[in-house]
Amino acid sequence: MEQGAARTAAEATPEEEGDPSPLAQALYFNRELSWLAFNRRVLEEACNKSHPLLERLRFLSISGNNLDEFFMVRVAGLKAQQLLGLEERSADGLAPGQQLAAIAAEADALTASQQEVWSALRGLLREAGVTVIGNDEISEDDGAWLKQHFDHHIFPVLTPQAIDPAHPFPFIPNRGFSLIFDLKRIADGEPLRELLMVPSTLPRFIRIPGPAARYVAIETVIRRQIASLFPGYELRGGGAFRIIRDSDIEIEEEAEDLVRYFRSAIKRRRRGRVIRLKLEADMPDELVALVREGLDASEALVFESTGFLGIADLELLVEEDRPDLKFVPFSPRFPERIREYGGDCFAAIRAKDIVVHHPYESFEVVLAFLRQAAADPEVVAIKQTLYRAGKQSAVIRALIDAAEAGKSVTAVIELKARFDEEQNLMWAAALERAGVQVVYGFIEWKTHAKMSMVVRREDSGYRTYCHLGTGNYHPVTARIYTDVSFFTADPRVGHDVSHMFNYITGYIEPRGLQVITMSPSQMRDRLCTLIEREMDNVRQGRPGGIWAKMNSLVDPAIIDQLYAASAAGVEIDLVIRGICCLRPGVPGLSENIRVKSIVGRFLEHSRIWCFGNGEELPNPEAEVYISSADWMPRNFDRRVEIAVPIENATAKAQLLDQVMVANMIDNEQSWRLDSDGRYHRLHPGPDEKAFNLHHYFMTNPSLSGRGAALRSSGAFPKKLRLPRAHH
């Protein structure tokens, strides 16, 4: 089991920074601790016995990667505030040092749990024939093969470096994994300290040849070859360590050239302050001191581990070819309505709005839309936002093809998409070479809206076709993120999207938007108005109801408005996958608010809002929106976001009666948030049927994309019912 953080940087105590306001703590959960609670739910999926073993291992590695990024960005930001002496408090009243102390305790407990889960999974995988063997399990034959492999594939890549006055401590990159050795020359007893960085180009695990899946960690292999690395020396002690660096990029308002600024900032990020240092627990004290001094890590959060350093690296083991230990492959459906029109996306969209539910319905329909636009001689212009597009992007290819075909193509590339900045710079250069007009948006704000518009010349004049989504134009994540795509030829939407693009490219603020709500200027106020209307309905004796699905709820103004709605009698159900700062179920404050989180095979990512409009939800008169925005200050104040109403009856029914009701009644992948901040997993009751929304959508056709097949196949999906006992 993990040991506690015995060597932790000194942090300010609550007494030093002032006690938090009891009222603030009664109203809001801490954002950072809520995120850590979400990552614990991810880790719990690694313990879910209904998942295949390698998928459970994948959840464990995801929890490790998530925690790395949390330290790289959120903890780094708090640490910077503390070092600068800033007193900005969180919504729940905690100063930076108080938050760091609470984070350190919870993150250490989470890390200890990760090691316990790895220990359990390692044993189960061994029983299933996938083994990670230790040094004492390596046979003579295996040792000979590993020696040969080391000599040919590892030794040439390694660069041992002495640590002495002539050889200062080297720079170690973010997430760098290293070994340090205390050696003694056999001939005369002369001491020597050596550092060995393990290059990221080397795989963390080495598979021993043979039919059995047997792996050895690279550090085990290196340690077996000490004599080859340091001939004539005797090992006195050593250990491994891994670091996390500050990886956030702050935008300077005076930055005149965003491209040049980001190229420089990416290089600076690689050299950011060390935020977290994880050490093997048995590393000698003098080596610990040497590492901390060499890394300038006196202010880092330090954790000692007796387990595996770098839980995220376990993802490599998931690649083992064992289909029996993974989820059954799933093939998403292509909307049949588009096939009815011979694959003509424009004809299908012209006939009726379409909602596509990813990943159950294929992201290929989005690519087909763009490819058709690129090839269609009647298309005159394409405009596209790109936040994250991935490394192998068919979207980029379609835009390049369109530009090379002579069309006017505009791409809004968001350089501030965290950890995708470098990739986006590369795509921007490729698009510009093809003749695409590349725009980088605003300096202060991120362009997070997911929009694509195609202007086509038709008999009646020019018509604008739009795709608006809740997720990124990223073919890889579209296979594992649940998102919603909305296709429409509604001229009102076309009008608004055109104005939105002009705003991003030319800073011309939209006036008179007809259906779209945008941030940073309108969205919070619009949401407050919609919530207030539900309160008015209750005051007038009619039902008031709100359903909302999102990734995070943080904004204090919206939380306060939801509290007011609850007090007025509005029934509120929130499906919030990640951070939730609202306290549900508190008498006199939020007894009419219920919050659940869904974590499972697919990553819940769609943002959907539903307002009863004077009737109980779900009902045909409800107002339903999809959005690119979570309910967070950054989405309302520092990002360009959109929310669009879904008015077509079939598309609305799909979102209300299928997607949202399925989220409400799921009892296999759901967690309920209690008023004390704890989450408990839901289980079917004795008289309740088990319902897994991911399984449901994998096996039931959607409404909007089926067209005539919906009527002729006899496979009309039954309307999901919300049990009366739901509230």
Number of strands: 27
What top-tier CATH class of the largest domain fits best? Alpha Beta
Spatial separation of the terminal alpha carbons = 41 Å
The pLDDT mean sits at 89
The CATH architecture name of the largest domain reads 2-Layer Sandwich
Main sheet makeup: 10 strands, mixed
What does this 3D model show about the protein?
With 727 residues, the protein is of the alpha/beta class. It folds into 3 domains: 14-321, polyphosphate kinase like (2-Layer Sandwich); 336-513, Endonuclease Chain A (Endonuclease, Chain A), CATH 3.30.870.10; 518-706, Endonuclease, Chain A (2-Layer Sandwich). The strands form 4 sheets. Strands 14, 18, 19, 20, 21, 23, 24, 25, 26 and 27 form a 10-stranded mixed beta sheet that branches. Strands 10, 11, 12, 13, 15, 16, 17 and 22 form an 8-stranded mixed beta sheet that branches. A 6-stranded mixed beta sheet has the order 2-4-3-7-8-9, sandwiched between helices. It is globular. The two termini are 41 Å apart. Mean pLDDT is 89; it is low at 1-16, 250-259 and 712-717.
